[in-house]
Amino acid sequence: MKALYILLLIITPGLAMPQTWSEQTPAGSVDKYWSACGISSGKMIAAAYNSRLYYYNGSSWIEQTPAGAANKAWYAAGISGTTMIAGIYNGRLYYYNGTSWSQQTPAGAVDKAWYCAAINNGKMAAGIYGGRLYYHNGLSWSEVQPAGNVDMNWVSVDISGDMIVAACCDPSSGLYYYNGSSWSQQYPSGAGTNWYTCSIYEGRMLAGEYNGRLYEYLDGRWNEVQPAGNINALWYSSDIYGNEMVAGCYNGRLYHYVNDTWVEEQPAGNAAFNWNSVGISNGEIIAGAYSKRLWTYLNPVPNIDNIIGVPYASINSILGILFDNVQIINGVDKLK
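^ thats the sequence. predicted structure below, dont judge the formating
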């Protein structure tokens, strides 16, 4: 109908609203050591070291208390839909099934230095600093030994379907990939590098060295990417979703790969931060800094009052004027 077309012409320009960074305050307007965070379809998790654990349900932040209402050394966290995993450094590992939290005991009912964790559609992975790496196939936990039957400093892990990528740092650094049936060590830049972050999405991977370079695995090969230029950086956090990636440096900047280009993001202004944790999903980003704040880059929700410059209630009047001047002749809408 012409009346509807006219209304759409009025409204449509207002829908193209830009994304912007905004500071989040789940723990109040104070600096925290945001050690881990994640995002999945608009839901988020954020963990603060020596503080609390928080969940964003799509509209508001809610404190989580799987280990009781007390400050804990939360260091590992992941989210997939409404399910979550979170671990305490020198503490326990917990899983949220969408309704309630339960303690997980892949390494036994003892405290461990849970340093990294990931979850994807019911499958989970979690790593211990100075310990072992564990995988939950949707039914039960089992120890996996990509580096052999030895303790390692597992600092990063990610999971996508049946695939896993995991990194351990010095003194025995390594980057390992599980293709669904077997583990293999990866050598993007040769052996002996100090891997500190890794992520995977449907076979595409991103991995960064601490005081080194950032690498992407695509179409069967590793390639160096240079969001910060041709220099070494302290790559500390990363995530990947589809064709978008995000990576953060320690005492450096935050970078976002979008529209086939790396761009520097400045959530807190033109300054270097210790970007401890990042997450990306459907073009939306969450990023946390050491002894600083938590920021998000979310898709905007249009305010109907701002779309056409008049209150929503006035839309009914506009529709009334338009449709009062429409008559139907032989099944065809025509303006009078």
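Residues 211 and 233 are 5 Å apart (CA to CA).
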